Amino acid sequence: MTKLLKLFFSFSIVLLLVSCGKDDDPVAKGDLEGTWTAIAYSADIKTSSGGSALSTIVATGTSFDYDLNLDGSMFTTSGSYSANQTVTTPDFTQSNAVDYTNISGSGAYTVDGNIMTIEGSFFDFEAGGMGMTGVGEMQTATFVINGDGELILNQNETITDTSNGITVDAKIVSSSTWVRK
Hints:
- The chain is mainly β.
- A hairpin with a 2-residue loop joins strand 9 (151-163) and strand 10.
- It has one domain.
- The chain has an eight-stranded antiparallel beta barrel. Strands 6-7 form a two-stranded antiparallel ribbon.
- It has two helices and ten strands, in the order ααββββββββββ.
- Residues 1-24 and 127-135 have low confidence and may be disordered.
């Protein structure tokens, strides 16, 4: 009985290891290629300069008719979507809805494991009438294709921009979910 029990536990551990390993398989770049349609987007952006907080921007996408095409090493975006956003500064808080229409963008991207580096941005974004898209910086995002076949991109990084002698750090935490078209 003891030998049978040990054999059962050994078999269970092997089965568990094999099934868990499948969840961690990296997505091949070819699996990403094609056209994806956005179904969700959220962003939390905190800006600061010299250690002082400048603003916090929280945005949630809605009403998507927005596509992302990944082809080789280039991406294109097209379509429209809306975003509900709240901008908070030390002096005021403002909430509004913004419609982004007739968007078309493009840029290069590379993939290394589950990290995608993007030249520019997949989403347009503005706060207080000022565009905050891409700012010419390379951005990175982790990605996964979940069990439902959805492409999920997560960004968690700080981008530093210096212009006119002023350095601004933007801490970006965002997530977007896409389904294959």
